[in-house]
Design a protein that fits this description.
By secondary structure, the chain is an all-alpha fold. It has helices at about 1-25, 35-45, 60-75, 80-90, 90-100. Helix 2 (about 35-45) crosses helix 3 and helix 4 packs across helix 5. The longest helix is centred in the N-terminal third of the chain and has 22 residues, at about 1-25.
Length: about 110
């Protein structure tokens, strides 16, 4: 039974990332390629995909992951509370971001 629940969560997360990537103007299939999806996520949030190399460095990767979640919330017009949700409850907040009417604004937009 737990395997079925695990697979359902994995499918939900892949589907959510697929939709988020499409909202950001990237092909959805890029969300299912393991390392390439991190590169694309950094491209969506930072505007520069090469930031993903920081994920290789221990301890730095934790800081960069938190900053990336903050920037992901920001580029979709969400606030700090949504960022905290993305960090601690990704299974809930990724689908909320994907399947809501949130619009991608790009990493260069200044949001108050």
């Amino acid at each position: 039974m737990s395997v079925i629940i695990y697979l359902a969560v994995v499918v939900l997360m892949f589907a959510s990332m697929w939709v988020i990537f499409e909202k950001a103007g990237l092909a959805g299939w890029k969300a299912i390629i393991p390392i390439y999806n991190t590169y694309c996520l950094c491209k969506i949030t930072w505007g520069n995909g090469w930031i993903f190399l920081a994920f290789i460095v221990p301890i730095v990767n934790i800081v960069v992951a938190i900053m990336t979640m903050y920037k992901l919330a920001k580029v979709f017009g969400k606030g700090v509370g949504f960022c905290i949700g993305l960090i601690f409850l990704s299974v809930v907040f990724y689908p909320l971001l994907a399947f809501s009417d949130s619009q991608y604004m790009g990493p260069d937009k200044k949001i108050a």
